[in-house]
Specification:
Helix 2 (13-23) crosses helix 4, helix 8 runs antiparallel to helix 9 (138-149) and helix 8 packs parallel to helix 10 (155-168). With 169 residues, the chain is mainly α. It has helices spanning 3-9, 13-23, 27-39, 44-58, 67-73, 80-92, 97-112, 118-131, 138-149, 155-168. The longest helix is centred in the middle third of the chain and has 16 residues, at 97-112. Helices cover 72% and strands 0% of the residues.
């Protein structure tokens, strides 16, 4: 399948599922999607990034080699979709110890940024919350950051924040 052509054909869940099915569990095919995200012009990276979440749901191991890349490059994206999908993937994976510090810093930055969309902030908050088991010293800082953000953001952020705060106690 020529992924760029298929991505431009239609932006829909059914088309995204069709592409994900063609990728299957093949690392070589999945690498083509990563290349589209990082090398092509809009709207291809935004559309291809949706595949990160779909493929991650079906074949999470395919994403593991790219976790560091996502952490290192997420802020370079101008559009919300790649950031949202990458941070969502990161929130579902066990992050290697050597990447945790950088991810924590990144997520706090994304979570408190007035520039980020709520979905990016929510997934960033979840990434940090997931790491509090290994780093309990983060609980107070995360709680303070959440409480600071609550009056400035949306109901969606508040809903996730309440769940996260319950688990921090």
């Amino acid at each position: 399948m020529k992924y760029t052509t298929q991505l431009l054909k239609e932006h829909s869940r059914s088309n995204t599922d069709k592409i994900a099915s063609a990728i299957g569990n093949d690392p070589f095919e999945f690498k083509k999607i990563i290349d589209i995200i990082y090398k092509e012009e809009a709207p291809l990276p935004q559309r291809a990034s949706w595949l990160l979440t779909i493929v991650n749901n079906n074949h999470p191991k395919l994403l593991e080699p790219y976790l560091k890349l996502f952490i290192d490059t997420i802020k370079k994206f101008k559009y919300d979709a790649p950031k949202r999908n990458m941070i969502n993937v990161l929130a579902t994976h066990k992050i290697p110890k050597k990447l945790q510090g950088k991810l924590i810093d990144l997520c706090f930055e994304l979570m408190v940024s007035s520039e980020e969309k709520v979905a990016v902030k929510v997934h960033a908050m979840q990434c940090i919350a997931n790491l509090t088991n290994e780093h309990p010293e983060l609980k107070g800082e995360l709680k303070a950051a959440i409480e600071d953000q609550l009056p400035k953001t949306t109901a969606a952020f508040g809903a996730r924040a309440r769940l996260v705060l319950k688990k921090l106690i």
